[in-house]
Amino acid sequence: MNTETGESRPRPRWKQWLIQALDLTSQSREDLLEDLQRVNEKNLLPDETVGMLQGVLEFGALQVRDIMVPRSQINFIDQRDGFSRILQTIAETERSRYPVMDEEHDHLAGILLAKDLLKYMGHEDTFSLDAIIRPALIVPESQRLSRLLAEFRHTHNHMAVVIDEYSRVSGLVTFEDVLEQIVGDIEDEYDEEELTSVNIAAQGDNLYLVQALTPVAEINAVLGTRFSLDEFDTIAGIIMDEMGKIPREGEEVVLTGWLFKILRSDNRRISLLEVSPYIENSYQEQTAAL
User: Fold this and answer.
1) Cβ neighbours of residue 104 closer than 8 Å, sequence gap 6 or more
2) Whole-number Å distance between alpha carbons of 62 and 57
3) CA-CA distance, 144 to 6, in Å (whole number)?
4) Of 49, 63, 115, 260, which has the fewest beta carbons less than 10 angstroms from its beta carbon?
């Protein structure tokens, strides 16, 4: 309320819409997500606002296992490695934090911050890995992201090592990974830029990597398809309309004789596709195995 005039300030547009359109006492989370999707389609709110609201609603249902980097993709530091070998690993992988494991990769010694190596530059003979290893934040696969976010804030850690029910390291998750579930992708100067110069990149005989925002006309020209140019501007719009939702990574759909597989997506959009000719028997076998 404006204390000088005694009049209430007008509500922001998004708050007014929520009050008028959503029955928060009776609708399910799925219903709210569908409502927000319709809001996005009608451009009632900015894309960023809708995306964050969708992210918050999805966030409460996610567990660490849903977003963690699996063990097979982790860049470990061997506890036996010397200074030069560790520098080589960092140069090759360009990370800021590394889990340190023993020889058999069974025991987690802690976390190495790349910046902690700076004090040994020019004094490599005094290097001691054990002296700079930091304690690791360890979380179970089943932990809710809301609780993990609270732990990150409380402990000031930016990385957690994930363990399975047998207390074995099964993956890792970062503070950035958690935030991206709400705000979408957070890119920095070290992120790889994939397919920035082309929308459609041939990967072999009739196999393509396709940016989801590729214009429909370009898809038609390369693949020989005849998608309508009237309803949607991009292939992403056609795929989401066909599936009736924002598909998750790994989901597939067949359109006009082509199989579109989602390689990268989040709760707001799809961004990267794998496209190949549709082979009926192979597709049915894969679907049955899921």
Assistant:
1) none
2) 10
3) 44
4) 115
From 92, 71, 87, select the one nearest 163 (Cα to Cα): 71
List, for residues 211-240, the tens digit of each pLDDT value. Answer: 998 999 999 999 999 999 888 888 988 998
Per-residue pLDDT, 143: 92
Residue 58 CA, distance from chain mean position: 13
Whether the pLDDT of residue 191 is over 60: the answer is no
Encode pLDDT of 9-43 as tens digits. 666 666 666 656 555 554 566 666 666 666 666 66
Distances (CA, A) of 111 to 67, 116, 178: 20, 11, 19
Instruction: Provide the pLDDT for residue 283.
Output: 47
Domain boundaries, the chain: 13-59, 66-183, 200-289
CA neighbor of 62 nearest in space, from 148, 151, 139: 148
* CATH of region 66-183, choose from 3.10.580.10, 3.40.50.300, 3.20.20.450, 3.50.30.20: 3.10.580.10
Question: CA 37 to CA 57: how far, in whole Å?
Answer: 12
DSSP string, 220-281: HHHH-----SSS-SBHHHHHHHHHTS-PPTT-EEEETTEEEEEEEE-SS-EEEEEEEE--HH
SS3 134: strand
Amino acid at 15: K
B/e letters for 3-22, b = 16+ CB within 10 Å, e = fewer, are eeeeeeeeeeeeeebbeeee
pLDDT in tens, 137-157: 999 999 998 899 899 989 989
